[in-house]
Amino acid sequence: AQAQSQVTVFGILDLSLKSVTTGGVTVNQMANEGMLNSRLGFKSEEDLGGGLKAGAWLETAVNPDTGTINASGKLWHRRSTVSLSGGFGELRLGRDLDPTFYNLSVFDPFGTLGVGAGFNLTTNLGSGAATLLRADNAVSYILPADLGGLYGQIQLAPGEGVPGNRYGGARVGYLKGPWNVALAFANTGTATADDFKLVNAGVSYDAGFAKLMVLFNGARYGAKRQNNWELGFTAPMGVGLLRASYQRADASGAGTDANDAEQIALGYVYSLSKRTSLYGTWSHMTNKGAASFKVGSPPNGVAGATSRGVEAGIMHAF
Amino acid sequence: AQAQSQVTVFGILDLSLKSVTTGGVTVNQMANEGMLNSRLGFKSEEDLGGGLKAGAWLETAVNPDTGTINASGKLWHRRSTVSLSGGFGELRLGRDLDPTFYNLSVFDPFGTLGVGAGFNLTTNLGSGAATLLRADNAVSYILPADLGGLYGQIQLAPGEGVPGNRYGGARVGYLKGPWNVALAFANTGTATADDFKLVNAGVSYDAGFAKLMVLFNGARYGAKRQNNWELGFTAPMGVGLLRASYQRADASGAGTDANDAEQIALGYVYSLSKRTSLYGTWSHMTNKGAASFKVGSPPNGVAGATSRGVEAGIMHAF
Amino acid sequence: AQAQSQVTVFGILDLSLKSVTTGGVTVNQMANEGMLNSRLGFKSEEDLGGGLKAGAWLETAVNPDTGTINASGKLWHRRSTVSLSGGFGELRLGRDLDPTFYNLSVFDPFGTLGVGAGFNLTTNLGSGAATLLRADNAVSYILPADLGGLYGQIQLAPGEGVPGNRYGGARVGYLKGPWNVALAFANTGTATADDFKLVNAGVSYDAGFAKLMVLFNGARYGAKRQNNWELGFTAPMGVGLLRASYQRADASGAGTDANDAEQIALGYVYSLSKRTSLYGTWSHMTNKGAASFKVGSPPNGVAGATSRGVEAGIMHAF
Questions:
Q1: Which sequence spans correspond to the domains of chain B?
Q2: How far is B129 from chain C (nearest CA, A)?
Q3: Are A81 and A94 in contact (CB under 8 A)?
Q4: Is the dihedral of CA C83, C89, C95, C96 positive or negative?
């Protein structure tokens, strides 16, 4: 028998064996997301006629190592939206990824995940901003797909009284032939008078035999700043993909000038099919001054310490 | 490929922008349920032969503004039942809506939801009764559908030691041509010697160009009483539905005689399809004495204060 | 319309009315699992070619009496795994049943569930071992299906710092004609220097008109031991199945020699279809010394007391 339903059920399970050593402490563990976040989702799309469509999307984050949901405690942590789309673009309401997330994923060979992710060096500068990835109560407008390569979106999320939740941001980009370039910026309200400000931009060029990408991510909160520069590289190799990246994080202001860090990462994804891959990643990070970044946790970060990690896993999408 | 399953996956996502002003305090927010409760469900029905059917139903309540589940913390907050049905009717076990809920929804143009809902003036009189909508551990019997318009159900739910959870109730109604009339009553055990008692009744007449409905809901707990009278009206208008209601709540006993309240509501549902609608609702409520009802929360209710609200949203069912 | 998905949605809802009397205290309640655990699951299987398959499995435990999830608080309490399988067998990662669980279910007419389950006399001897059924972070290898009746699996689960979670175990069995025989053993790390050790074995013979089974389960923790012997019997009768079992639990060591217990159980499953059954079970247990086992809870166990129970329910699978 077949399901009597107009909804699509989809998901990803990704589990890896991971070893992280930070400040001389090593933790070996089963980890949830070396390549892609584990998830289960339900989405609906209805054609309303005249080019208009309605859509709904619910997506939970799964920790398959222990069977729990995301530590946020929100069942639909990844996305819970309803939307109307048409020739004008898409109007979308609910909890969702925010505009400043996308460049951090698209222009990083490791896509914010695993021991090699550039996201390991991303910070909210202690501002309490909870919007590095997603926003609650968001109203988003997304440009239509047929603008000759131009794409973009804008999002406003009232904080509804929760410090670190009030978000306004936008992203605009251009994708044409081998080139992709995008710019995004956002303000997030905090518990203090200062907003947390983020601006990031990326460029990638796909030469076929290899793809190069450059990502800049700049954060500012009061007198504190951190500018990250990342150089990324991917290349098809055999039935898989070689991935490599180098990133520098440069802190400044409020006595943080010495707290810089660097990360280098190398990995390979072996594709068993379009939906299933084996992967392995290695990374090495150095912290200076009071910087205490880490390639994964546990163990906790340690000021000025080296952090390194290696993981091997399997990802299956359905 | 197609799902290898005999289960139906269904749901509703409903998000609105809502502004509520109570006692001079205004809160603007994204809200979850201006028209219908957001939900995700899974149901199965099996034909056992001889007219007998088995069924299962799991339904979670979704807050798509923030991605959380219902504040009760129960994943299957809306319904978790298994049932056997046939010519004799249906025997149903589990957590479910209770008989005294239905009149409050069926004979209200706003169906217990949003700033215009008559349910905004419903109370358990401080009894701790947790059964205004649903009951845990319920054994329900529902009359078969082919009784010439007669319908009804009875439900017994042992409290299993939780004050406010022991429920016994029944509903009987008659639907014929343009007329629908129903009566329901229930007792709920509390932490005191007094049961919380509810009786409600509704009548509706559908003249085609408009539908009129009258709803009475009477609550009693010890010496306290509250009687609510609501007049409702709906009319097809363009591709949508005009909705209006007026309700009075009359409290009495135990020094509450002055704590009366009134609500008036007006709204319009614009149907984009059978499954997708845009809607807008406005309502205005006055409290007298120590009555502190509100058209929505936050903000909190304020004794004797005016509460008013407006919301506009989108509902998509799948 | 049909689901656009390659995932199978499946589940079971099982609700019963149950009465348990222990130490003279009787509790009547609606219960969740007289025959099979209530659940909702999502599974995917992809053919990778060359005999290789990838799979994913998410399965939540449902308490349909109140709409909650399992008391562990883990949404995917029952299983969350990703696996690769082929001619070599199956490699599986994630939270899953462990090898020492299977004999307790397969060689018990009541399959670890309900007032008649042999599992009612199973203990971790106060060791804190949380692995009687499942393990987090597990790496499992399962033998292929075509070994002429030989089957087996091995599982290693690092505790990741949680006492009672570090598990290593294996099971091997042989299924041929009417005979099935299997042996399993495991070690679980605890908060003390002693591991909790479990060994169990079962034999069953299916004569067609009846099936006989014998199960041994031996637990050891430091100086404490408990050996359980169970004799089980099932027989097709009418459109259903008669089930009966007798079990003895023999404690020894560390002053527990007198703490023995016995249970006898009798039940009948009436099959309405392959997917839907009605069932009834009766059981009676005696405790000696300080033994405080029980056929169900609530009420709590009482040292040296008799515990007896009866339940009648419905199970529907989809």
A1: 7-317
A2: 16
A3: yes
A4: positive
Question: In this structure, are residues B173 and B181 in contact, taking their beta carbons and an 8 Å threshold?
Answer: yes
Residue type, B33: E
CA distances from A212 to A115, A188, B115 (A): 20, 31, 53
Task: Using CB atoms, pick whichever of B8, B9, B316 lies closest to residue A42.
Answer: B9
pLDDT digits (tens, 9 = 90+) for A36-86: 999 999 999 999 999 999 999 999 999 999 999 999 999 999 999 999 999
Q: Which CATH number does B7-317 carry?
A: 2.40.160.10
**A1 pLDDT tier (thresholds 50, 70, 90):** very low
Contact C272 B54 (CB under 8 A): yes
Inter-chain Cβ pairs, chain A and chain C, closer than 8 A: 122
Q: Do C82 and A14 touch (CB under 8 A)?
A: yes
How far is Cα C3 from Cα B40, in angstroms, rounded to an integer?
Answer: 15
CB contact under 8 A, A48 and B11: no
Q: Which residue of C has its CA nearest to A71?
A: C74
Q: What is the mean pLDDT of residues A137-160?
A: 97
Q: Which among C5, C48, C139 has the least Cβ separation from residue A9?
A: C5
The string of pLDDT tens digits covering residues C25-46 is 999 999 998 999 999 999 999 9
